[in-house]
Amino acid sequence: MKKTISGTSMWKWLTFLFAISTFVFLIMTVTLWVTRDTKIVLSDVPVCGRHRQTTHHGVKIKANSSLQQLTRHEMSVVLDYLYQKPDLNLEQIKDASIHKSFVHTIELKTPRKADVLRFLNGEPPPKREAKVFIFRGDANPPYIGEYVVGPLPNVSYVRLENTTSRVTKVPYIYRPFSSFEFMAIYRYVIAAVGRDAHQVLLESYNATPTKCGDHCLRFSMTPISSAFLKRGERKAWFWFAYDVEFFTLHPLDFQFLVDMTDANPRNWKIEDIWYSNQLFPSMKDFLSNYTCGAINKTRLSFPGENERYKSSLQFRQNSSMLEDDVRPPLLFDQDGPRYTVGDNIISYMAWGMEFKVSPTRGLELFNVRFDKETIVYEMSLQEVAVMYSGYSPTAKLFNYADSAGLFGTRSRGLLPGVDCPAHAKFVDVVLYSANEGGMRSYQNALCVFEQNDNIPLRRHRAYGRIGAFYGGVGTHSLVVRSILSVINYDYIIDYIFYQNGAIETKVSLTGYLGTSFYYPPELKFGAHLGKNLNAGMHLHLFNFKVDLDVRGTENRFETLDIEMINETDPWYGHYHVQNQYTKSVSVTELDAVYKFNFSSPKYLLMSNNRSTTGEGLPRSYQIKATGISRVLLPDDYGFTKSISWSKYQLSFFLLPFNYFDEDQSMRSPDSVRVDPKDERRPTDGATVTRYHRRDSSSCVPFFPFPDDDLSKNSTVLFT
Ligand SMILES: *[C@@H]1O[C@H](CO)[C@@H](O)[C@H](O)[C@H]1NC(C)=O
Ligand SMILES: *[C@@H]1O[C@H](CO)[C@@H](O)[C@H](O)[C@H]1NC(C)=O
Ligand SMILES: *[C@@H]1O[C@H](CO)[C@@H](O)[C@H](O)[C@H]1NC(C)=O
Ligand SMILES: *[C@@H]1O[C@H](CO)[C@@H](O)[C@H](O)[C@H]1NC(C)=O
Ligand SMILES: *[C@@H]1O[C@H](CO)[C@@H](O)[C@H](O)[C@H]1NC(C)=O
Ligand SMILES: *[C@@H]1O[C@H](CO)[C@@H](O)[C@H](O)[C@H]1NC(C)=O
Ligand SMILES: *[C@@H]1O[C@H](CO)[C@@H](O)[C@H](O)[C@H]1NC(C)=O
Ligand SMILES: *[C@@H]1O[C@H](CO)[C@@H](O)[C@H](O)[C@H]1NC(C)=O
Ligand SMILES: *[C@@H]1O[C@H](CO)[C@@H](O)[C@H](O)[C@H]1NC(C)=O
Ligand SMILES: *[C@@H]1O[C@H](CO)[C@@H](O)[C@H](O)[C@H]1NC(C)=O
Ligand SMILES: [Cu+2]
What PROSITE patterns does the database record attribute to this sequence (predicted)? Predict the structure, then answer.
């Protein structure tokens, strides 16, 4: 059974704890550096993990997988084939423009699950095909097509994808914004506004959008959801902000509406102008009102050094945190990593999985296995919706479907030591996207590391007359992380794998605020953070696809519905109120639709009733929601129609529920057991049993901080 689970989360600040209790001892024992003149001699304390062979510097492991993402060579083969098709009339990227045809993205067409599973059972691999989105700006009428090109490696066909599950030939007015569209916007919209309103912009803001030196304006846009437009129209609101670090904190009260319905940008029309809290139906009306002096005029000067500093990520010199020059705790792998990251696989203790990166959806995990048994066939982020409220024309319509920004291309440049621990493994990926100039490598697109949560995963201490014992294990988990920077936001997407078989999906949000120019009516929609600055209230909603397979693909969704009962106590005859549960099995997918209701708590389970425990209970995984926020807008209003999934929220942990015969962390080598030497005299000494190599020797953690490398070549961070 296939389920799409949507999740949401609103964690504002990323709080990351790298702490390791033994670090203090380490500093003591490691201070064995001897400095003699300029020569530094390391004592015989070994570098952590040096004795272990790792794949980090060697050849990357590549599984024989039908899900391996397209190689550079395969993408070239696809492109070469497409370029020689005269009917597609494709432009090379350097010559492309919005009213011509060009290749937008190329990625592996994910083979059908049944075919992949057959391949895993030893049958021939499924056909390898590419999924290619092509902008057909010169077709009549223009459209965006989802094409299938195959079979790789020797391509012989290209055809429009033929499926009933979605539209694969989309009218051009619904296209996502691309870099070609932005080029056209600069050329035909910003240039025109900059020319016509030059005097106004200069007088009002002391800055202009073009030929502006160091007093520049930068534009942002709000594409208007088609739900608010007449059929067949494409329009967007634009607004100016000061082009400084960082522009979203310097919005201005100049907004304009552009009709972009025509595929040819020469025919785009600038319509309404909103300036100084007044709306004008045209540039002409606005300019004549402005010239006649009949309206309030905004008068702002370009942000000075102090204002720019306040909106920047520059370090604040005035800090009471500077008193002690003592560095923070760090996390490191004392014996080298316990996980392997290959070209398309990750393994960690009992866990194993495949991954690929799609230019549109970003990181996708497949075939997530525990002890070789698949638990999750597929897990990936599909969409992030952002919905604002506000007063000005643009602030009201700030609704975004962020995947249009292409998640795969938004995740790159992770900085070791901040974005991921310094000892993490970083993965580069190669993707094709016209927005980024075609095929290119995205460095440090993902990272993988093992962390110590510094909280017991399980423990019990017992002490009594007949004896005493202690058993416990710390929480060590593997994190697979990508961070998507979409304009002003940074979404940190973590998939976390625990030793007890639990999987956590976690989204943390940071970055810059989306804002609008402050006018008093804006206040009830957000926070007045600066003289002209209002940060709007909004929601971020995350849509994940999770395909759980509990001991095979034939599963069912069931809920354990908890309710209060008031019954006669069978022992004493009075009334007693307590909780009971009833099991409810979903027969159809519609039955399985879940709307959170605080008054009716439920366990949500994906179960296999042919695979049962010794007591006959079906083996299950529980889907545990960890963050939801109610969308109050009507289901059929405006943008909410495009994100119907947001009505059925879950964010989530996936927890084994009668899935294993016992807690899998019982066999974790990280376990510790303490027994008294003599049960009758537990205070007279105890034996501590550990299941790792018993080794209390120290090692020097080796942290390849990137600073020196960055000083020579910073491509890894800034492309
Ligand atoms: C991958 O596995 C399939 C099926 O077992 C086999 O036909 C194919 O030759 C293998 N490819 C490589 C490169 O090993
Ligand atoms: C692809 O073409 C090459 C060269 O023409 C040929 O050697 C190879 O066998 C072909 N591969 C397949 C899978 O058809
Ligand atoms: C699309 O698929 C359907 C069903 O398989 C088929 O009837 C139809 O002819 C196909 N259309 C094209 C254009 O291939
Ligand atoms: C000012 O704009 C209004 C429309 O908002 C227009 O009707 C009027 O003619 C303009 N006034 C001048 C003096 O141009
Ligand atoms: C112009 O500003 C004054 C003073 O802030 C205000 O009372 C008036 O309503 C404004 N006029 C318009 C048309 O916004
Ligand atoms: C430093 O910060 C404190 C607290 O925000 C403030 O009171 C003080 O004036 C600041 N000092 C300087 C020199 O900016
Ligand atoms: C339980 O039932 C008894 C008998 O009907 C009633 O008196 C009592 O109020 C009930 N308690 C609750 C909490 O519903
Ligand atoms: C929520 O659950 C309560 C208790 O079962 C029920 O009375 C109520 O109708 C439910 N609300 C919705 C909106 O389904
Ligand atoms: C398992 O579930 C199916 C579908 O709900 C049902 O027909 C079958 O009887 C169940 N089998 C067992 C052993 O409970
Ligand atoms: C910088 O590094 C990138 C790859 O990380 C490489 O492609 C580029 O050539 C390097 N630049 C210089 C000037 O060495
Ligand atoms: Cu936000």
Answer: COPPER_AMINE_OXID_1
Which residue type sits at 101?
A: S
Q: In whole angstroms, how far apart are CA 70 and each of 109, 119, 359, 429, 443? A: 9, 18, 11, 10, 17
Please tell me the distance from the alpha carbon of residue 251 to that of residue 530, in angstroms, as a whole number.
11
Q: How far apart are CA 541 and CA 629, in angstroms?
A: 8
Tell me how long the chain is.
719
Between CA 274 and CA 285 the distance in angstroms is 11
Which band of pLDDT confidence, cut at 50, 70 and 90, is reported for residue 3? very low
- pLDDT over 80 (residue 333): yes
Is pLDDT above 50 for 12? Answer: no
Nearest partner of 392 among 255, 250, 205, judged by Cα: 255
The candidate with the shortest Cα–Cα distance to 442, out of 430, 433, 432, is: 430
Question: What is the tens place of the pLDDT at every residue in 147-172?
Answer: 999 999 999 999 999 999 999 999 99
Distance CA 80, CA 164 (A): 29
Whether 112 has a pLDDT exceeding 50, the answer reads: yes
What does the pLDDT look like over 389-436, one tens digit per residue? 999 999 999 888 889 899 999 999 999 999 999 989 999 999 999 999
Q: Are 517 and 534 in contact (CB under 8 A)?
A: yes
By 3-state DSSP, what share of the chain in percent is helix, strand and coil, each rounded to 5?
A: 20, 40, 40
pLDDT in tens, 538-577: 999 999 999 999 999 999 999 999 999 999 999 999 999 9
CA distance 651 to 483: 18
The pLDDT of residue 376 is above 90: yes
Q: Which tokens go with 394? A: 């643009």
Q: Which atom of ligand 7 is nearest to the CA of 577?
A: 13
Percentage of the chain beyond pLDDT 90 is: 74
Report how far residue 380's alpha carbon sits from residue 162's, in angstroms, rounded to the nearest whole number. 23
Q: What Cα–Cα distance (Å) separates residue 715 from each residue in 217, 321, 575, 613?
A: 27, 32, 72, 53
Q: Centre a 10 Å sphere on the Cβ of residue 309 and count the other Cβ atoms it contains.
A: 14
Q: Give the amino acid at 552.
A: G
Known catalytic residues? 402, 489
Q: Is 342 in the pocket of ligand 1 (CB under 6 A)?
A: no
The residue type at 136:
R
Ligand index nearest the alpha carbon of residue 309? 6
Query: Nearest CA to 384 among 403, 367, 363?
Result: 403
Distance 279 CA to ligand 5 centre (A): 13
What gap in Å lies between CA 659 and CA 366, rounded to an integer?
Answer: 20
Residue 670 · residue 515 · CB < 8 Å? no
DSSP bridge pairs for 450 = 478
Question: What are the helix and strand counts (H, E) for the chain?
Answer: 12, 35
532 to 62, 88, 297, 301, 515: CA distances (angstroms):
54, 49, 14, 12, 10
pLDDT over 50 (residue 40): no
DSSP notation for 514-548: -EEE--GGGGGGEEEEETTEEEEPEEEEEEEEEEE
Whether the pLDDT of residue 14 is over 70: the answer is no
User: Cα dihedral sign for 89, 94, 99, 102?
Assistant: positive
User: Pocket of ligand 4, candidates 277, 288, 297: which has the most ligand atoms within 8 Å of its Cβ, to mutate?
Assistant: 288
The residue assigned the tokens 């970055």 is 511
293 lines ligand 4 (CB under 6 A): no
The number of the ligand 5 atom at minimal distance from the alpha carbon of 276 is 14
